[in-house]
Amino acid sequence: MTDGPGPAELERLIERNHRETSADILDLKSQLTTNATMFTATFDKYVLVAVYAVEIAALRTRIDKLDDEVTSARRASRQAVV
Description:
With 82 residues, the chain is mostly helical. It is built from one helix and no strands.
């Protein structure tokens, strides 16, 4: 009399474990694919925001420079008239 499962029972348990493990691996791969897609989309949004911020900063710098040029031109015009 043996205390453990017999060879047939062990084979059945091994096959069941293999099926369940395979299903778990497929599920994990699916989750990783989904998470990678979501991460990529989120990363792309952050990149777009960063590019937008740089473009806005460059635009503000350009506007400030144009304002300085207008002020300088007005000053030069006033001095030319006086």
